[in-house]
Amino acid sequence: MRIPPERHDERGMVLLVTLAALAMLIPLVYAGVDAQRFHARQVQRELDLIIARRNAESLLARVARLLIEDAAQTRLDHPGEPWATPIAWSDRDGEAAEAVTQDLERFWNLNGLRLADGQIDDTLRGVLVRLWQREGVPVDLLEGLLKAPLPLRALEQVPGWDRVTVRKMRAHLLAEAECPSRRLNLNTAALATLALLNPEREWQGVIRMREREPFAQVADLSKAGVTLAPQESQLLGVNSACFAVTIRSRAFGATGTLTALLVRDASRMTIRKVRWNG
């Protein structure tokens, strides 16, 4: 049987339409498969992040227990403590976490420097003036501390302090509103920070002595050949109440960071400012 030419044209058109539809459908099918795979990966990542955060919170609780146990046993805080070195945890299934704890009373806290009348006493003012002079910062910027509304939560909040000033001050000062201590921990503060208290004293011997055995009391400075005026000694301590913890946690393909502030009062530990970034 002979097919008329117009039927050939109809069949050709149907075939072309079918092929065009398939050409459009196939990418959509693959796109749908890719979307499902992407969604599955997203769900898996969220589950992994939940596990990573759970492990970080568990490690944070361990750090808190170590700090409480330390307070109960020695009442001293120094670089040789179990909490002062990185604490790592891992298993064979791809989960791992590491906690780094920092004693915040190794710095001068801007929130604890001013007296009730808003002024800075002569001893602390001398510390700050020496710091300003040593770092080459104009001393008139010190007046910004008297004008700044408390509490300060960052060095950048001090009026008149630019980025250069903040960078130079960060090794010795912090602004932590949760624990506005006036004291500096004799056992953890850096040599350059301790020397600001009285640069005429030989602080290098203090560092050598505390490396062998931490100071049990500030009065023991005399054993290292350092004598201080009473108002200078009152600005030192041998234990701390404020600690910053940073925990990096990994669960399979997901990684997050937990930061927290721990405030210790005798045998009680309060966890504040917990933040998870994952």
Indicate the topology.
Layout: H1 5-73, E1 87-90, E2 95-103, E3 108-109, H2 122-135, H3 143-147, H4 163-169, E4 173-174, E5 184-185, H5 191-194, H6 204-212, H7 230-233, E6 236-237, E7 242-251, E8 254-265, E9 268-277
Parallel strand pairs: 3-4, 5-6
Antiparallel strand pairs: 1-2, 2-7, 7-8, 8-9
Description:
The protein is an alpha/beta fold and 278 residues long. 40% of the residues lie in helices and 19% in strands. It has a domain at 105-237. The strands form 3 sheets. Strands 1-2-7-8-9 form a 5-stranded antiparallel β-sheet, with helices on one face. The chain has a two-stranded parallel ribbon with strand order 3-4. Mean pLDDT is 87; it is low at 1-5.
Summarize the structure.
The protein is an alpha/beta fold and 278 residues long.
Order of helices and strands: HEEEHHHEEHHHEEEE
Strands ordered across the widest β-sheet: 1-2-7-8-9
Give the biggest sheet. 5 strands, antiparallel
Average pLDDT score: 87
**What separation lies between the terminal Cα atoms?**
73 Å
Shape: elongated
Number of strands: 9
Q: Provide the structure class.
A: alpha/beta
Beta content: 15-25%
| Number of helical stretches of at least 4 residues | 7
